[in-house]
Amino acid sequence: MAERRPGEIRRRIVFDPATWHALDRLAKDRMETIQELADEAFRDLLKKHRRPTTLREMLRESLRSQPANDHDRQSRRRGG
Q: To 10 degrees, what angle do helices 17-30 and 34-48 make?
């Protein structure tokens, strides 16, 4: 079993046999683990739904969501 990294969360996921075999074959073809495939898939899913995946992206998004940070755009509209 792989060594646990600090802060890591483990969950079980159930696959139907056909999906499991397809994932297993893909992992072997790409010389990756199922975990690496899952990491890539979840990152892509979060990106598709415009959800931040890193601390830097989370901070950037939180700054964008504050109206007080939009002063630069408003001044441009007024011609100032």
A: 100
| DSSP codes, 28-69 | HHHT--HHHHHHHHHHHHHHHTT---SHHHHHHHHHHT-GGG
Counted residue by residue, the chain has a size of: 80
Looking at residue 4, what DSSP letter applies? P
* Tens digits of residue pLDDT in 21-47: 999 999 999 999 999 999 999 999 998
Cα separations (Å) of 41 from 23, 74, 75, 77? 11, 38, 41, 41
CA 77 to chain centre: 35
Q: Which residues 6+ apart lie within 8 Å of 34 measured at CB?
A: 23, 24, 27
> What's the pTM value of the predicted model, to 2 decimals?
0.64
- Give the phi and the psi of residue 14 in degrees, each rounded to 5: -100, 130
